[in-house]
Specification:
Oligomer: heterodimer
Distance between the termini of chain B: 35 Å
Strand content of chain A: 15-25%
Number of strands of chain B: 5
Strand order of the largest sheet of chain B: 3-2-1-4-5
Number of helices of chain B: 1
CATH architecture of chain B: Roll
Mean pLDDT of chain A: 90
Number of helices of chain A: 11
Structural class of chain A: alpha+beta
Mean pLDDT of chain B: 80
Radius of gyration of chain A: 18 Å
Low-confidence stretches of chain B: 95-100
Number of domains of chain B: 1
Shape of chain B: elongated
Helix content of chain A: 40-55%
Radius of gyration of chain B: 20 Å
CATH topology of chain B: SH3 type barrels
Largest sheet of chain B: 5 strands, antiparallel
Largest interface: A-B, 32 and 28 residues
Strand content of chain B: 25-35%
Low-confidence stretches of chain A: 1-5
Number of strands of chain A: 9
């Protein structure tokens, strides 16, 4: 695996997966080695091995690639589908999504697996926002007043957010976006607010050539990518689909609390 | 680790009442225990997700969860080794059906 065309998917994976990896939340322990790939811009078997260590994301990449007949889980189209969203997501057969979820979670949760399956039956597709809102335990913790504030913060930082760069300040960018809100009953997107997000660390940027006016993707405290108009529409569409799913179309939102 | 993982609390000061040091997958990490009803102590096991302890676990529950995670990771490593071997064979121009 080498060359610009082949490296597009793996390097896109680095851009989106590095922020939680740097915080110690996901993936390989050696986040510096993982980040080096973003610096070098080279994709090789070493990067593929590191990508496999993302136990949350990797099975979804395998699911999308297998469901769409694409041999490489790090194909650019597959990686884009998972993090941003594209037409591949609706081509993955519902049965395959259910089988994948069962393989990963049924043994852990026993007869409560039906709660996890609700999201799949409600139209959930293998997009990162499905995992954040439909599988992670945090939506289930919103109902606890003492935990709701932290839960909302994790949900907002963990989802891929979108926003517009309004100014650059050294290695930081001011980005206007709509933060996630919780009114005690529904998860919604709030009024636009400006936040400072990291553009680079020690000279290493995940997204290149960012300037005011650019539409960007944010993951945790990083600007991780510049979005095209098509990607922005897809990210918004799939995020809103899964917010609607968790707000209105499942009986047991936040089912992964049972993973505890 | 994007899924919840057991961690054992270690001794050590972080300077913040909600933050403790814990061994997460063999790596020392700072974990926020502020969401728990009672603060656990060194040696206790907790279930960690995104840097927060969500539950206290018994040592038996932690051992079971770690065993399950270990089995999953071994399966992942096997798959990675197979993929690597396949790529190496393709790079070397191995004849079709070499693996059968």
């Amino acid at each position: 695996m080498s060359g610009p065309a082949a490296s597009g998917g793996p390097l896109m994976f680095v851009r989106y997966a590095y922020p939680p990896n740097a915080l110690g939340y996901c993936g390989p322990d050696d986040s510096a080695a993982f980040r080096e790939y973003a610096v070098a811009g080279v994709a090789d078997q070493g990067l593929v091995q590191l990508a496999r260590a993302f136990s949350g994301a990797w099975p979804y990449l395998e699911l999308i690639s297998a469901g769409c007949g694409i041999p490489d889980p790090l194909d650019h189209r597959v990686v884009e589908a998972y993090w941003v969203g594209n037409e591949l997501l609706d081509r993955v057969p519902v049965g395959k999504i259910g089988d994948s979820m069962a393989e990963r979670f049924r043994q852990r949760v026993g007869n409560k697996f039906q709660f996890l399956a609700e999201g799949v039956l409600a139209g959930g597709v293998p997009h990162h926002s499905f995992h954040v809102f439909g599988v992670y335990p945090w939506v289930g913790l919103l109902g606890d007043d003492r935990k709701a504030k932290h839960a909302l913060m994790v949900l907002d930082r963990c989802r891929i957010r979108w926003g517009t760069v309004t100014a650059l300040h050294g290695d930081q960018a001011a980005v206007e976006s709509r933060p996630l809100g919780w009114d005690g009953r529904l998860l919604t997107l709030g009024e636009p607010a400006t936040e400072m997000a990291r553009l680079a660390l020690d000279g290493t940027a995940l997204a290149r050539d960012i300037g005011p006016g650019d539409r960007v993707a944010l993951h945790w405290d990083w600007v991780c990518d510049k979005l095209t108009g098509r990607q922005l529409r897809a990210l918004r569409t799939y995020t809103m689909r899964h917010l609607d799913m968790v707000n209105h179309r499942v009986d047991h939102p936040g089912p992964a609390a049972i993973l505890s | 680790m994007c899924l919840s993982i057991p961690a054992q609390l270690a001794a050590g000061e972080t300077g913040h009442p909600d933050l403790v040091v814990a061994e997460v997958g063999g790596v020392p990490r700072t974990v926020n225990v502020g969401l728990l009803d009672e603060r656990p102590g060194p040696g206790d096991w907790v279930l960690v997700h995104m840097g927060f302890a969500l539950n206290v676990m018994t040592p038996e529950e932690a051992a079971d969860a770690l065993a399950a995670l270990g089995a999953e990771r071994e399966a992942e490593r096997d798959a990675a080794r197979e993929a690597e071997a396949l790529h190496a064979a393709m790079d070397a121009g191995a004849p079709e059906g070499w693996m059968t």
